[in-house]
């Protein structure tokens, strides 16, 4: 679970950086990277939720 949380932190940082670059400078490649990492964040959050629910049942 700790690795998952670290992955989420890293992905959120990358997402924020790319979104800011897209908004501030109109960098289309940064927008594409942000969309890609948003899918990774979604998968990781679903995994976190699954693990969290399992742990709460113990």
Oligomerization status of the protein chains? single chain
Q: In percent, how much strand structure appears in the residues? A: under 5%
Helix content: over 70%
Average per-residue pLDDT, rounded, comes to 96
Question: How many separate structural domains?
Answer: 1
Number of E-type strands: 0
- Total helix count? 2
Ends apart, CA distance between termini: 15 Å
Overall geometry: elongated
Report the order of strands and helices: HH
Q: How would you classify the helix and strand content by structural class?
A: mainly alpha
Gyration radius over CA: 14 Å
Q: What's the story with the biggest beta sheet?
A: none
* Model regions low in confidence, pLDDT < 50 over at least 5 residues: none
Could you describe the 3D structure shown?
- This protein is mostly helical and 58 residues long.
- It has one domain.
- Helices cover 93% and strands 0% of the residues.
- The chain contains two helices and no strands.
- Helix 1 packs antiparallel against helix 2.
- The longest helix has 30 residues.
- The protein is elongated, with a radius of gyration of 14 Å.
- 5% of the residues are buried.
- The mean pLDDT is 96.
């Amino acid at each position: 679970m700790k690795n998952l949380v670290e992955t989420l932190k890293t992905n959120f940082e990358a997402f924020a950086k790319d979104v800011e670059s897209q908004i501030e400078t109109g960098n289309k490649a940064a927008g594409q990277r942000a969309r890609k990492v948003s899918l990774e964040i979604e998968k990781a959050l679903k995994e976190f939720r699954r693990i969290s629910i399992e742990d709460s049942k113990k």
